[in-house]
From TrEMBL:
Keyword Glycosyltransferase belongs to the record: no
Cited PANTHER family: AMINOPEPTIDASE (PTHR11533:SF290), PROTEASE M1 ZINC METALLOPROTEASE (PTHR11533)
Note on how the cofactor is bound: Binds 1 zinc ion per subunit.
Stated name of the protein: Aminopeptidase
EC numbers for this chain: 3.4.11.-
Active site per database record: 322
């Protein structure tokens, strides 16, 4: 599953106990295998489906009722039967449906025998093919005619709309799936096709091999008449005739990504095939869905247009995210949706890490700081902070996506650095049975304890450290105040989101006299509200905390240290500070300025050094931070100082890398990050001359996007009307801005 449009409701499962409490399926039985047959009818204007099902289960207690999920499907009591493994029929008293919690309960006349196995049969159930979550249908018209598709998207509670099931992540079972279809269609499912049967009326029945144990939300099947690529190793892509010719590069990338993840995790991919299905953009709720062996994508996220630079990074990272889920989510499955961050945070981290292994020159792990860390800070500041583990109530949504994705992935990256890459990778090799955060920490701790490589955790275990990062809202702010007589550094931590919250913070730091940014493990652990750095201190030069911004926290300094940092940035030696820390300093300084913690002159004066900067990562931090500052403080008195600064001191100094510097990774970055920032300027600043000046400065005298980005219609800044405004501002400000011909 991928982010942005993810807004699925989590429902409950049993009889209400009280207001505000949530409902879960009782753990009185355990499903072990589903034998499922489905037949969609695509020949009508209101497509339907029918099916039959055998659920093999084990009784875990002598219960007289079985409760599972069913939603918007019709099940007759007469179609339900239960037989024990000894062949004895289990007498059913009655069945009841509870639409409020989407359950179907079977009451029995005698209790089940604990630990005995049973077959629960639904001889027939029916339902309608809808849109979005569940079993859905679409009709697409192309130049080659009509394409039809019925497919599934089950996360988080869609499986119950297709067939009766135990629709919680912890109820894993194997699946044998059969699909009945007309000859003009073909079918797909999680596993390989085992065999095909011809039915008496000309229909065909495709029977698929049994899957490994898996949760219902990653079950997938489809009946369709799309086009397909040839099989490339284990991979094949399915799409409409209008898209199929644009998916061959992703097909090649898929082989590299799967191998990269197998190599890193040390665990082979669990199936013999991996299909990719590109569906119309309005067809599914999410941008992609990680079904085991059959990944669904919105067409735009699998369609590769080599002339559109933005497609490159989007396709690669979307694919890497879903591939990561084949391990983190499908193998390692959260026990319940409270812990969905285990799946999504790891997948988000590995979408960047895996893609960076495939395309190392793109510097995606550097872009991670801009896309994930900085954006995650902004989202929590703007939209509200939440803990990682998020108790999902009945009619509530998942935690906001920026908690599962940006916040969680940033914390995973922090773990990678304070544990070290090698320890983290070895722990990943071991952790594939974990289902709760405590399981995760315990398995990682076992690797730490057994390793000859020592890891400094300040006398704590990993669970103690991660408790604060998992359960606290937001992130900490560390304030460092230097004593320029003794060299001691006083540290204070506080939360801008909840009073009294404390974190176990991995602190590492560097001085100007020994600028070693490579060792990103913790120098010490900051667990109290106040602490003092006594060792390896100096009164001279600058101090910088949080090397490569590996920890998920902001850092503020006393004004003297800020001035010393600015001095080195404005010198020829500015590259002695790591590029990720240059980006961090800009992002943090603007944040503290618009929080009125430091003067706005600090980030503005610091930004003057960008006249020398040739790396795009600090430019992204500057653009995003300044855009948010101007938007947030529109009309604030500090904005007058900003306007004066930009007009009189800064406008001729900022010269981002020119068109000759458009390497592939630079193009990707500029389009996705800088022009994203420009869109913020456009939205909030274009009603005044200052907004125009900022855009001109940021883009540079001869900087403009490649022509393929100029056909975005009225939504783009580079429209005909905007172009005319640009010329007006150019004349008014005496700036020489070159624009390409309008297209």
């Amino acid at each position: 599953m991928h982010r942005f449009l993810f807004a699925l409701l989590i429902t409950a499962i049993a009889i209400p106990i009280g207001k505000g409490q949530r409902y879960r399926l009782p753990k009185t039985v355990k499903p072990t295998r589903y034998v499922l047959t489905m037949e969609p009818n695509l020949s009508t204007n209101a497509p339907t489906f029918s099916g039959n099902l055998i659920i093999q289960f084990q009784a875990l207690s002598p219960t007289t009722s079985i409760t599972l999920h069913a939603n918007d499907i019709k099940i007759a009591t007469s179609s339900v039967s239960i037989v024990s493994s000894t062949g004895a029929n289990v007498r059913i008293w009655r069945t009841t449906s509870n639409p409020e919690v989407q359950t179907f309960t079977i009451n029995l006349r005698q209790p089940l025998v604990s630990l005995q196995h049973y077959n629960l049969t639904f001889s027939k159930f029916t339902g309608g093919l809808g849109t979005g979550e569940g079993f859905f249908f679409d009709r697409i018209f192309t130049n080659e005619g009509e394409s039809l598709i019925a497919a599934t998207h089950f996360q988080s509670k869609g499986a119950r709309k297709a067939f009766p099931c135990f629709d919680e992540p912890s109820f894993k079972a194997t699946f044998i799936i059969s699909l009945i279809r007309q000859p003009k269609f073909f079918s797909l499912s999680n596993q390989e096709l085992d065999h095909m049967e011809e039915l008496s009326d000309g229909r065909l029945k495709d029977v698929y091999k049994e899957t490994p144990p898996m949760s219902t939300y990653i079950v997938a099947f489809s009946v369709l008449n799309f086009k397909s690529t040839p099989v490339y190793e284990r991979h094949q892509i399915y799409a409409t005739s209008e898209v199929i010719n644009d998916v061959f590069v992703p097909l090649q990338l898929s082989v590299l990504m799967l191998k990269s993840l197998e190599d890193y995790t040390g665990i082979a991919y669990g199936l013999n095939k991996l299909d990719h299905l590109a569906v119309p953009n309005s067809f599914i709720i999410d941008n992609a869905m990680e079904n085991w062996g059959l990944i669904l994508y919105r067409e735009r996220n699998l369609k590769y247009n080599p002339s559109a630079v933005r497609d490159i990074k989007r396709v690669v990272t979307f694919m890497a995210h879903e591939f990561s889920h084949q391990w983190f989510g499908n193998l390692v499955t959260p026990e319940f949706w409270d812990y969905i961050w285990i799946s999504e945070s790891f997948a988000t981290y590995f979408q960047y890490f895996t893609a960076s292994q495939i395309q190392p020159t793109w510097r995606l792990m550097d872009q991670f700081n801009i896309d994930i860390i900085h954006q995650g800070f902004l989202e929590e500041e703007e939209k509200g902070a939440h803990p990682l583990t998020y108790e999902v109530q009945d009619d509530q949504r998942f935690p906001p996506f920026y908690v599962m994705y940006e916040k969680g992935a940033s914390i995973i990256r922090m773990m990678v650095h304070f544990l070290s890459h090698s320890i983290f990778q070895k722990a990943v090799h071991r952790q594939f049975q974990c289902v709760t955060p405590q399981d995760l920490y315990r398995t990682f701790q076992e690797e730490i304890n057994g390793s000859v490589q020592k890891v400094f955790l300040g006398g704590m275990n990993l669970g103690d450290i991660m408790q604060s990062w998992e359960t606290n809202k937001g992130y900490p702010i560390v304030t460092a105040t230097r004593n320029y007589n003794t060299g001691f550094v006083t540290l204070k931590q506080h939360s801008p989101f909840e009073n009294g919250a404390l974190w176990s913070i991995p602190i590492n730091y560097v001085y100007s006299f020994q600028p070693n940014f490579q060792d990103t493990t913790a120098s010490f652990w900051f667990t109290k509200e106040y602490d003092i750095i006594y060792e390896n201190v100096t009164t001279g030069g600058w101090l910088l905390i949080n090397k490569q911004q590996t920890g998920r926290y902001r850092v503020n300094y006393d004004l003297e240290n800020w001035q010393r940092i600015i001095a080195v940035l404005q010198s020829d030696n500015f590259q002695s500070i790591h590029v990720l820390n240059r980006a961090q300093l800009l992002n943090d300084a603007f944040y503290f300025a618009y929080q009125k913690i430091i003067p706005v002159s600090i980030p503005l004066t610091m930004s003057e050094y960008l006249a020398r900067e040739k790396d795009y990562i600090p430019f992204a931090a500057f653009c995003n931070s300044l855009a948010y500052y101007l938007y947030t403080y529109n009309g604030n008195t500090d904005k007058d100082e900003t306007k004066f600064f930009l007009n009189h001191r800064f406008k001729d100094q900022i010269t981002p890398p020119g068109p000759n510097d458009y390497t592939q990774e630079y193009k990707i970055f500029r389009v996705r990050s800088v022009f994203k920032s420009v869109s913020v300027f456009v939205k909030y600043c274009l009603r005044n001359v200052l907004g125009f000046i900022i855009i001109i400065m940021v883009l540079g005298r001869s900087i403009y996007p490649p022509p393929q980005y100029l056909h975005q219609g009225s939504s783009t800044f580079f429209s005909a009307r905007a172009k005319n405004r640009f010329h007006i501002v150019r004349r008014a400000t005496m700036l020489h801005v070159t624009l390409p011909p309008h297209q």
